[in-house]
Amino acid sequence: MAFTLKPDESIRRRIVENGCYARSENERIYNKWFAKGPRHQFQSVNRTYHLTDKVICDIGCGYGMNLLYCQPGSYGIEVDKYPVDFARSIGLTIHEIDFMHDDTDVLPKVDAVWCSALLEHVESIHIFLRKLSVLLKPNGLVIIYVPTIPLIPSLKHIPGLKRYTTGYLYSDHINAFTPSTLRFFCERAGFETLEVSPFMPPPLAIFNHVPLLNQVVDGVTFVGRKILNWSYPEGATRRSIEQGQGFEYYDWFDDGNLKT
Fold first, then answer.
1. Closest CA relative to residue 244, chosen from 136, 114, 135, 144
2. What's the Rg (C-alpha) of the chain?
């Protein structure tokens, strides 16, 4: 049987007894967010890529459910003060910043970045992905989960399937993806593709790598590796840099020829 991350009694006590809210609220948070361990996408990716052996940054980390299992030096980024205060109270390192708009150059470099259900919300996908690359150590891993437009959107009309085929339509989502567009965005931001998969749990896991069938449900995970000394394609108006938003523009045109 595949190894599953799940809290033991010491973790339960740590959360319930040290959480910064009333005990009843600490217990509610534990039962909702921690009791079953990290969600299945994290569990599935971890079995192959050993995230818990790495120093990671979890962007949009919430209460820190994944960070509990990762190596010292791991940290989360979160904009919501309520879970930030809670995660800090149980001993986790959380940076309360807006990753898109705040200075992230001061953050420690990490072995892997975990980013789940966030890219569909951001105003600039490319800037966000380039900033992820800057955050990574050489050859670091990036793992991104997004809801996707399913291959057959009309499946939402079948009783019981709507919740698995309409996540991309949530009112606060401003970007929508398919597996191929997510891969393009990530590769064009300097990542080598290792895997693009819905990482469905058993018994549906047999469909994860079956063409077309792996696009029936809503959601896909990209696993990639930062390419060392990556450059934009020839003729691009940008060049990659390892700070800020991850790129800068070439000086503009001299009779149609880009200055370098």
1. 135
2. 20
Token pair recorded at residue 8: 């033991």
Rounded to a whole number, what is the largest CA-CA distance in the chain?
A: 69
Question: Strand pairing partners for 191?
Answer: 226
Closest CA to 199 of 40, 66, 2, 50: 40
232/240 Cα distance (integer angstroms): 7
Reported as a single tens digit per residue, the pLDDT across 150-205 is 877 766 767 776 766 777 878 899 999 999 999 999 999 999 999 998 776 666 66
- The CATH architecture one would assign to domain 41-227 is 3-Layer(aba) Sandwich (3.40)
Q: Nearest Cα to 33, choosing from 9, 11, 64, 57?
A: 64
With a cut of 60, say whether residue 1 has pLDDT above it: no
Question: Given CA atoms 155, 156, 159, 164 in this order, what sign does their dihedral have?
Answer: positive
For the segment 7-40, what is each residue's pLDDT rounded down to a tens digit? 999 999 999 999 999 999 999 999 999 999 999 8
Q: Is the dihedral of CA 136, 142, 145, 149 positive or negative?
A: positive
Q: What angle do CA 116, 76, 131 make, to 5 degrees?
A: 70
Task: Note the pTM of the prediction, 2 decimals.
Answer: 0.89
CB 57 within 8 A of CB 111: no
